[in-house]
Automatic annotation (TrEMBL):
Record organism: Lactococcus lactis subsp. cremoris (strain MG1363)
A single BP term in Gene Ontology: cyclic threonylcarbamoyladenosine biosynthetic process
GO molecular function: tRNA threonylcarbamoyladenosine dehydratase; ubiquitin-like modifier activating enzyme activity
Gene3D superfamilies tied to this protein: NAD(P)-binding Rossmann-like Domain
Domain THIF-type NAD/FAD binding fold intervals: 6-155
Name listed for the protein in its UniProt record: Putative nucleotide binding protein
Length: 217
């Protein structure tokens, strides 16, 4: 990458919804890749049960607000980062519309609730002309959705509130899924000068037992 391309990374503003097992991995990857502008959205506090799979948090952070802890931890890695933390549970469209702003580049959904979270994000993204992508992880498989944008709208039958809930995950599966999602986001945002074999508009199912990825158009 040339210097002018690196500077473009600095200008991108990423929205991350859900700062748990996948969200923290995504943030770690994108911060270290050079992204500096983030809006992070989460309502939770750090719990002891989070520490087995969620990056950045330590025992000393238990009981603290996730977004405030993340802002400080990310700035330890990248002091010039511009991070807006929003302590909010996204339960309806207006919750997210009040956060999204001009200059946002892409929304990453790493939240698994409410059940209609993808529908909410989809409606907001269409209204704001913003691409978005989601990821979900369990013990056996991880799922990274297609990129949804002006060329690929999320159809009603694809909303994930029709899926069976995932009941658990371990650190390795979160790391793999979060890193895979981060690479797709990176390649998509710079697709005009990066050559990638990814199909941005395919769903990617990661089988952790076989260490394979299956793409579904």
């Amino acid at each position: 990458m040339l210097n002018k391309d690196i500077n473009r990374i600095f200008l991108k503003k990423i929205i991350v919804i859900g700062c748990g097992g996948i969200g923290t991995v995504v943030l770690d990857n994108l911060v270290r890749a050079g992204f500096r502008k983030f809006t992070i959205i989460d309502f939770d506090k750090v719990e002891k049960s989070n520490l087995n799979r969620q990056l950045f948090y330590t025992v000393e952070d238990v009981g603290g607000t996730k977004i405030e802890i993340l802002k400080n931890k990310i700035r330890e890695i990248s002091p010039s980062s511009q991070i807006t933390g929003v302590k909010r549970y996204i339960s309806e469209k207006k919750d997210l519309l009040e956060i999204l702003s001009v200059g946002d580049s892409l929304v990453i959904n790493c939240a698994d609730s409410p059940a209609n979270i993808e529908k909410i994000i989809s409606e907001c993204s269409v209204e704001k002309s913003l691409p978005f992508i989601s990821a979900f992880v369990g013990v056996e498989t991880g799922t990274v959705t297609p990129i949804y944008d002006k060329d690929n709208f999320l159809k009603e039958e694809e909303f994930t509130d029709n899926y069976l809930p995932l009941k658990g995950s371990i650190p390795m599966t979160n790391m793999i899924t979060g890193a895979f999602l981060s690479k797709i986001v990176f390649d998509y945002l710079f697709r005009d000068f990066l050559n990638s074999d990814y199909s941005f508009y395919s769903e990617h199912i990661i089988n952790f037992e076989k260490l394979s990825v299956t793409n579904y158009e």
